[in-house]
Task: inverse folding
């Protein structure tokens, strides 16, 4: 059976419990996270997107993940947050994408995530203020991430040409605010590792 045609373009931020900077971007499982395990949240701004005939444009998303050690060994736990303004068709489509069930960029999630905690529909905001990205889900997530400046003034420090599946270029960042409370978790990653990436995922 042919896989559905889908794509999502925009931007994403990710913050975790690693000290700056998370080795998983480079190691792809050769080295564990700096604390030996990974706790992370991510925010997504979908500027353009579709799943077959369903429009995904203008939808914001959130994701939480726990990885018990080396990324490549799997047994990840994940939970998904979808903008409450998304249609029921968009919600079903995004859930399929983020569980890796429709192949493409996110296919690995179908192999590595062993415990999917489900989907919560919530109001989600993703805003840019200067170089800082702010992601908020009321009573759940208050995240603020700023790139680490490179030697060229305001230009961020960029990692490129790695084998990291999330994006081709990763802007190194750290969290200003990073509080997450949901699915029985209560995390605070203030001052710890973060990244900003172009979102360009597809079937």
Result:
């Amino acid at each position: 059976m042919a896989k559905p045609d889908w794509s999502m373009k925009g931007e994403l931020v990710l913050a975790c419990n690693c000290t700056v900077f998370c080795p998983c971007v480079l190691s792809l499982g050769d080295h564990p996270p700096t604390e030996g395990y990974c706790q992370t949240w991510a925010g997504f701004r979908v500027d353009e997107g579709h799943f077959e005939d369903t429009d995904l444009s203008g939808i914001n998303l959130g994701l939480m993940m726990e990885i018990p050690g080396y990324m490549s060994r799997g047994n990840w736990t994940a939970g998904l947050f979808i903008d409450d303004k998304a249609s029921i068709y968009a919600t079903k489509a995004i859930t399929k994408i983020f569980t890796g069930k429709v192949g493409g960029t996110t296919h690995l999630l179908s192999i590595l995530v062993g415990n999917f905690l489900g989907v919560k529909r919530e109001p989600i905001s993703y805003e840019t203020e200067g170089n800082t990205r702010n992601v908020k889900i009321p009573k759940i997530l208050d995240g603020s991430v700023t790139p680490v400046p490179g030697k060229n003034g305001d230009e961020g420090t960029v990692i490129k040409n790695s084998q990291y599946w999330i994006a081709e270029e990763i802007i190194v960042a750290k969290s200003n605010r990073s509080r997450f409370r949901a699915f029985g978790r209560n995390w605070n990653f203030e001052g710890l590792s973060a990244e900003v990436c172009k979102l360009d995922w597809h079937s």
